[in-house]
Design goal:
mainly alpha
């Protein structure tokens, strides 16, 4: 995470662009007749990971503003980060 104002402007712009693109994708998805369930599942997983990460970052930012202990939020973020390798392992080595 960049602490420079230039980095924050860049990520803010990227987030706005991705938000707009996701809205456009949603419009296309609801009108699509045939969709590959594997692609939908991968997309949903990716969106969920991003959503969880953003939630944690938002909670962390709020804890700094409210001057509360951010350790619980950091634990959640660390758990989210470790879920990705587990997900890959499950994909390539199903039980």
């Amino acid at each position: 995470m960049s602490s420079s104002s230039g980095g924050n402007v860049s990520i803010s712009l990227r987030l706005q662009n991705v938000t707009n693109e996701l809205r456009q994708i949603q419009d296309v998805l609801v009108s699509e007749k045939e969709l590959d369930s594997r692609i939908l599942s991968d997309f949903r997983d990716a969106v969920n990971r991003v959503r969880n990460t953003v939630w944690g970052l938002e909670q962390y930012a709020n804890s700094k503003t409210a001057e509360t202990d951010p350790n619980a939020v950091l634990t959640v973020l660390a758990g989210s980060a470790s879920a990705l390798p587990i997900s890959f392992a499950n994909t390539f080595n199903p039980t």
